[in-house]
Amino acid sequence: MDTDRQAYSxxxxxxxxxxxxxxxxxxxxxxxxxxxxxHQSFGLSENYTEIILSDFYEDKLEEKLKEVHQSAIEKExxxxx
Length: 81
Hints:
Blueprint: E1 14-18, H1 20-33, E2 49-53, H2 58-80
Antiparallel strand pairs: 1-2
């Protein structure tokens, strides 16, 4: 996804947002200044992807998200191997 979906339904507890705009901006900038690397990751650990809690669920899920965030990054890195 590239947008926060909470406006579409009260049943959306969170959105996983990939900031395509930042990816394109940084990639074009690197390409302009040199050459693009052969491989890049655009995940949670690079801050290109984030989990946005819906306002309605924020109080209920904020602590849980903090607990699982590092685990999600570790699993993302394992998947990259």
